[in-house]
Amino acid sequence: MTLNIVVDFDDATAPYEQLRAQISEQARSGALPVGYRLPTVRGLAAELGLAANTVAKAYRALEADGVIETRGRNGTLVAAAGDAADREAASAAREYAERARRLGLSRARAMAAVEEATRATFPE
Description:
This protein is mainly α. The protein has five helices and three strands. The chain has two domains: 15-79, Orthogonal Bundle (Arc Repressor Mutant, subunit A), CATH 1.10.10; 82-121, no CATH class. It has helices at 15-29, 41-48, 52-64, 81-102, 107-121, and strands at 37-38, 68-70, 76-78. The radius of gyration is 17 Å and the shape is elongated. The two termini are 29 Å apart.
């Protein structure tokens, strides 16, 4: 089992975001199992030809999303992210629903806004 990352420097998407998205997808799909030890920031940066700060930024975003966890000298590991991601998504949905109600939107208008945002964020 290995980390398989490809950074396309010609892509308009920032390298840290490409890195974040690929690690997240591999962790969520099971290609990287819970407990898999990720390379060090410097090691992965050297391997991919990136600045260490770029990899560190991706790791911070992944940790904030609950995909990975850093254990000091024990390294950075893939966390049991499914439950954390589901909880965070449910929390964000509740916050959105409450805000939409305070703004006076109907349920249909609130759902239409979510559908539009989802369509823009998850192109098919």
